[in-house]
Amino acid sequence: MTAFSRFTPLSASLPATVPFVGPEAIERQRGLAVRARIGANESGFGPAPSVLARIAEKSGEIWKYNDPENNALKVALAAHLGLKPENFVIGEGIDDLLGLIVRLVIEPGMPVVTSLGAYPTFNFHVNGFGGRLVTAPYRDDREDLDALLALVKTEDAPLVYFANPDNPMGSWWDSDSIVAFARALPSTTLLILDEAYSETAPEGSIPSADALIDLPNVIRTRTFSKAYGLAGARVGYGIGTPGTVSAFDKIRNHFGMPRLSTEAALAALADQGYLDDVVGRIKAARDRIASIASANGLSPLPSATNFVAIDCGRDGVYARAIVDGLMEHGVFIRMPGVAPLNRCIRVSAGLPEDLDLFEAALPKVLKALN
After folding, report:
1. What is the Cα–Cα distance from 194 to 161, expressed in whole angstroms?
2. Radius of gyration of the chain (CA)
3. I want to staple 207 with a disulfide (CB 3.0 to 4.6 A). Which of 88, 211, 316, 328 is the partner?
4. Which has the closest alpha carbon to 209: 185, 177, 239?
5. What pairs with residue 111 in β-bridges?
6. What is the pLDDT of residues 121-163, one digit of tens each?
7. 350 three-class SS
8. SS3 for 219?
């Protein structure tokens, strides 16, 4: 296959990469139909009826570009969290914001600290801008704050990534530990505190909205893709000081946010009663996933997210065989990609009928493997 001859040396050296292979691609590759979509940490419970009504009501305005300043959503988020509109940047999901942050901070060869096995899309962006990943192993299936801090100081790293609650393990830290970590970082190191799963986290694990708002070297990222049920709308936001947040205006796609996505996010934010109901349903689904795992001799890990990591007791080869075997039954799940985390599989919270399929298929798959 012939490629254009004047790509940059950096881009030419990179492999074509999809950080997460989607269920649609698996269906195409394997000729199998997904019957239970419980692998991508979406919300099978969907958005609130009020959100769907808002989308329908505003659909005739699809011909218009969105407000490039995203003012309405910034104002709504500020009211919801007790901050100011200038504390927010809006993006096409957290993934978009991660790419912008890396672009703002990293030049080729610069060290970037993260955990070994943490969210791979962040690594994708770092590689794409020529950064040098420096990783700390997980400790007891949690990101190791002490090790991350030590690496930042040793490497004089300008950027560090940390997710709380964590993907892919579902673990979490208490808010006091997170605040202490952030305040111990050098002022020249920007912390990405990824809080994609903040709505499902236990009390005391998420710092208050104003706890870190005085630190210009902290960006907290959140999303409407998880508990709010809007993964397909691609709405994420960052929280930081006005000076830090305003830097995004230098490089972001000002017309990137779809108009209907913003309307959906505004309606979702206004319907906190529905959010509370979904969080309860997610907890019930996590409990059921854990029960299914235990009944089959596997070990579910405690989770603060909308998924459960399940220790399969062996290695990544065995865990991959379970993932592939479940797909033979139409049950789509995923697994961490790096040892020793890849001894686990990861199952997203889903509707009762999705978990019925998982419960029926898992013992068949395990029996075939043992």
Report:
1. 7
2. 21
3. 211
4. 239
5. 132
6. 999 999 999 999 999 999 999 999 999 999 999 999 999 999 9
7. coil
8. strand
